[in-house]
Specification:
Blueprint: E1 7-8, E2 13-18, E3 23-27, E4 32-37, E5 52-56
Antiparallel strand pairs: 1-4, 2-3, 4-5
């Protein structure tokens, strides 16, 4: 959905998380720039794993 280096606004969809029977969209909680994507498409992660970082901005 979003790639590192792209600007994001609060409530923008960053990515989707697929679980056994549900696909959930994860939204940005703030304005800023998506700095790093720590999990790639198809990776298996655990609840609480850091999957991306956002550098906050005022706009």
């Amino acid at each position: 959905m979003k790639n590192p280096g792209e600007a994001v606004k609060q409530d923008d969809i960053l990515f989707e998380v697929e679980m056994d029977k549900v696909i959930s969209q994860v939204e940005s909680e703030e304005n800023g720039v998506l700095k790093e994507q720590k999990a790639a498409t198809g990776d298996t992660t655990k609840v609480g794993d850091l999957v991306a970082t956002i550098e906050a901005s005022d706009s």
